[in-house]
Design brief:
Helix content is 38%, strand content 18%. It is of the alpha+beta class.
């Protein structure tokens, strides 16, 4: 009771901007970027565990695009996250595009992505295969 009275005296109800509620505090590593006209968001996420997959799916269900960086999880967890997100994207009619090693772009149905990012490794393999076939 005394703690509540002190808290209310120090932080009046009209000015709660600086109050941090530690009981409900959780680690959140999402970064949001909002477009000015449509209100659609681009969410950048670095999950640290498979359990964060549902949070990413929730962003997609709200029709936000999500860039997922899987470099902080193990290969097995990354595979499980991609499988989960693939199912989510299938259900909402979205798309998954690989941007680089361990980085994926997940877009809902309302977002059109133009162009592709080429993969250097696959280009090198294709070039070496063509050179082998031509055999000058």
């Amino acid at each position: 009771m005394a703690f509540k009275a002190i808290t209310e005296a120090l932080f009046p109800k009209g000015n709660n901007d600086d109050v941090i509620d530690t009981e409900d505090e959780s680690y959140d590593n999402d970064v949001e970027m909002t477009t000015s006209k449509t209100g659609a968001k681009m969410i950048l996420v670095e999950p640290r565990a498979y359990s964060e997959s549902q949070q990413i799916a929730d962003h997609l269900k709200r029709r936000n695009s999500v860039v997922v960086n899987l470099k902080r999880v193990t290969n097995d967890q990354a595979r499980r996250i991609i499988d989960f997100l693939s199912g989510t994207l299938y259900a909402i009619g979205g798309e998954l595009q690989r941007l680089g090693y361990g980085i994926y772009l997940c877009t809902p149905k309302n977002v059109n992505v133009e162009g592709r990012i080429s993969d250097e490794e696959s280009e090198k393999k294709a070039k070496s295969k063509i050179e082998d076939e031509m055999d000058f």
